[in-house]
Amino acid sequence: MDTNLTISKGIFVYKTKNIADYKRKDGTDNVFADQLWYQSFKSVWTKVEQKIEILNDEMFTGLLKNLVDSVKSSFNEKVTEVPTKTLLTGINMPDHVALFSTLCKEIKKSVTPHIAVLHTEHCSTLKNLVESAVDQFVNKVHSYESDGDELKSKIRKTYCTFAFLQAWYESLHGSTNSKRKTRSVAQPLVIIIPDFENFNEKSLQDFILIISSYLNVLPIILIFGIATSVNAIHRSLPFHVSSKINIQVFNTQPSHLYLNRIIESVLLTEDCPFHIGGKVFQCFTDIFLYYDLSVQRFIKNFKYAMLEHYSAHSIMALCTFSHKVNRVVEQLSDDDLAAVKSLQSVRDHIEGSDNFEETLIQGVQHFYSYLSMFHLYLKCLHSLVHSLPNCPLGKQVRELYSTATSGEITQSEGYIEAFKLLGFHSKQELTEKVSGMCLILEDHDGDEIQDVLAQLQEHLVKLEDATTEVAEEPKLGGELMLSEKMNRLQLKQKLRELTRAPKQLSNYDKARAALIQYLQDVFDKYLRHPSSVPFYELFFFNNLSIRQVLLGSHRSAIHTALNNPSYYFHCDCCKLTDDGRISASMPDISILYKLHLEYGKLINLYDWLQAFVTIVDPYIDSGEEDAENRPVSPEVHARFIQGVADLEFLGFIKSYKRKTHVVRLTWGG
Amino acid sequence: MSYNIRKRLKNVVVESDEEEKDFEESASDYSPSESESASSSSELENSSSESDNSSHVESSKKLPTKFRQDEDHTYIIKSDDYFSNCTKKKAVTSNNKFTDVDTSRLEQGKLQDLLSSYNVTVKHNKQLKQVAVENRDQFSKWLYILKEGFNVLLYGLGSKIKILNEFREKCLGNLPVLVVDGFFPNLSIKDIVTGIVNDILELSDNPTNVYEACDVIINKMSSRRNLCFYMIVHNIEGEPLKNQQTQTLLSKLAAVPNIHIVASIDHISAPLIWVNTQLSKFNFVWYNVTSFLPYLRETSFEESSIVQQPKALVLSSLNNVFMSLTSKTKDIYLIMVKYQLEHGKAKHYKGFAFKKLYGVCKEGFLVSTDLALRSQLTEFVDHEMVKIKRSNDGVEYLVIPIDNNVLQQFVDKHSKE
């Protein structure tokens, strides 16, 4: 059935022409590159990617400023120990690539062109380590083109020793020994080890000793990336080594802050018309928080959701930037328009109109303005509620977003709770918060926003003027009532009634209530659930099946297939009333699997085979006694053997020292 | 429990109309009411209520989207099972012997013949085809995803060789492809890297160090953006590939934007082999391609599978070597075989002591010196017909590493001659 049915090798190459002929022709374009929706996707994704890159650079540069500065000044004074910077990076390893590449860029820009980055896999032995480090210093100067003639100028790796490095460095910068004074001018050699914990301790110790002996001729700086704690250095380097290095510790920010920044300033803005719905968003943040704390993974998941969303239908091309909508609508076919018409949100909210294209353009534009308002007011709400005790709505904008897109946020428990708490705020606290909200609003133009802003400021003034004094009269009435003579029981009754009577509101209370009412009205208006706005489906991705695709459910898929094959077959014959039953119509492997569940740790192959035979090849004839000794047909036998081999291949069983048995490797069905 | 209900309802929907099912799958992407928490009844309504707008279903056919909607099942381990299964001190089984079945001596070749004559899929041929078609429908989507920097990982019960071969033939016909059989026992990462450097990229120098070779590949690929090649890795978790070093290298290759990997896994613990960093570099998208096909090729390499040890092979090779021996040597070997058959069942059988063998052989005038016997034994050892073990007290024991029932057949044949 296939061409590679040889059993003598494990690698097969399929190629129809020489590698040189593959140039250009079979370019790396996507199969759907000519589709409208793909172009929309590409433009949105490129924009998002760019913004993330800019943000990364900004963020890391800020973080690494201290580190770079200290690298710059390390050799200003005479040093006796190797200057060592440790960067506490946190355990989100996949993100470190971006961090260290920014670090390299920064050092190259402002300190020195001599950088070597050492990865674990290159440095299993001291020899490899030295070679790899020196090689990077010496050969980095030449550009890394892999064409033949360029390779010649490269220095062979076997020549890469420290003596060679010294000669090279002196030829470049002049001997440092002779003119010690000018050393600060010279460019230091920076060695970066991004993954300190994984490094071979032994060779690293020797390496550091070698470096320290060369320190008077070669200005070398070490930078370690440590995922756990500074302790790791002391654990892997004994005293005689660690005394040779001068450690300085730098911190980076934890990755969840990084994620928040990406979410707030890239994903939840107008620059990204594509949005993920509450459930999926929740799923992604869960993956982030409970699996790997990797922002890269989050971004990749987001990208996959985008791919999934755009490829769902050609009408998703509409999910693009607002200035491109007109062009997209022009290119849509009639079928596409019909499809847009049949979207749930469109059917619910828009009556049939003659010029649907016009309605479509307007509707989509309306959705953009809705979205920008949605984000703006989400931030406003966040500024109000993020510091409330117990955080009923969460501390982060992302939590608010997730609530707001999974259901009506204004009806949610947390929201009601939050506003109740706001209602207890003192004048100062409330004024602070509302002014904070005003600051956010001030950054944005638009009549509606200015209107809201004006109203808020009006409320603030009222709040400022309001006193906490309570009007006098009702108080008097109360006292009067109490002054009458009454017995203990009556007094008790009276007091109880008084507590029940509505509390007298002060002016401040009234102003506060009015403000909060106004705020609620505003949020009611702008923080509606997106699905209540037409064309929602074009912009929101809400399919939670994506979880299976991103995380995989390997074990459960196998489990289901073995236990309940009808799940995949959609057939009647294998449908089971309860999980323990076995029917002959099931695939052999399922039957064998179910039979093997009935055994303990060891399975006797003979018994297993007999049980298998009774199911797949039941003996119907009358001769009951010799049923046991009936020879097994070779066909059934072969099926049994293959099934057992399959189960072994899957890892359910393994062979046992007694050849008649196999061992179960799992427990439980 | 709700899963059961949902599943049952789903089946009802599926049976009712094949097309409607098709529709439900594609439509759910835009129906707002479709959510995970939606009750099972609403799912039914959903599919029926939207049956009027079938237009966009047809238009979406060319598009790659297809989620297997029916995968909301989760696998939950019941911890009680552990105690019911593993706390028993000794596993009790019956004394029946598998070798008692007279057909137990099935050979590899015969096994394959039997299996191919019996159509394994006969039970659900139609459904299996349906499942295969559904899986095949995803090809264009895989291509689409691969080009965007993701790699594809296939899982689910059943051999995936067929579907991966189909994918290669249909979609990657003209492109350079490297197919790796991860289940092939003698495979090494060196083979893979060499395959890429020599055969795919046609580079003249191939560094001996795999890491350097890997760097060469990465440099080459990143300097030529318009070039791309695919790697199809059957069983990326296979025995020869599952060590950390190999996986790190593979993940480094996978992270290169113009190297695309389509891999498959089968072993139930396969996902455990990757660490965080590797997974992030692999950037897998997981697709379930359950096919129920038997693992014919994959298992044909398995040495340990006691069930299908190719005994005929052992026997015939034993015979072949035996025939080429001198008559005296033959006799020596027969002595050893008979001794092992006689005493091999003893509880602490150590083997045939060398001294003892020498004594027996001397008696039969087979050898005259200790040295001569040794040189005969070397021949046996070279052909792996005998193993020499040294016990704690320094005595050499000779053991024949072949199953007793094979030896019995061997003796039956040769003692008559």
Brief overview, please?
Chain B: GO terms for molecular function: DNA replication origin binding. The complex is a heterodimer of chains A (669) and B (417). Chain A is an alpha/beta fold and 669 residues long.
General description of the model:
The complex is a heterodimer of chains A (669) and B (417). By secondary structure, chain A is an alpha/beta fold. Chain A has helices spanning 36-73, 96-110, 126-139, 148-152, 162-173, 201-214, 231-236, 239-242, 255-267, 278-292, 295-311, 325-331, 334-341, 344-349, 356-385, 397-406, 413-422, 427-442, 447-465, 473-483, 488-500, 507-526, 536-539, 546-551, 554-563, 566-569, 588-597, 605-616, 634-650; strands at 11-14, 82-88, 115-117, 189-193, 220-226, 245-251, 275-276, 540-541, 602-604, 653-655, 661-664. In chain A, strands 3-4-5-2-6 form a 5-stranded parallel beta sheet, sandwiched between helices. In chain A, α12 (325-331) runs antiparallel to α15 (356-385) and α27 crosses α28. The longest helix of chain A is centred in the N-terminal third of the chain and has 38 residues, at 36-73. The two termini of chain A are 35 Å apart. The relative contact order of chain A is 0.07. Mean pLDDT of chain A is 81; it is low at 142-152, 178-184 and 474-478. In chain B, a hairpin with a 5-residue loop joins β7 and β8 (396-399). Among the domains of chain B are: 122-288, P-loop containing nucleotide triphosphate hydrolases (Rossmann fold); 311-415, Arc Repressor Mutant, subunit A (Orthogonal Bundle), CATH 1.10.10. Chain B is of the alpha/beta class and 417 residues long. In chain B, the strands form 2 sheets. Chain B has a 5-stranded parallel beta sheet, sandwiched between helices. Chain B has a 3-stranded antiparallel beta sheet with strand order 6-8-7. Mean pLDDT of chain B is 74; it is low at 1-71 and 304-308. β1 (11-14) of chain A pairs antiparallel with β2 (177-181) of chain B.
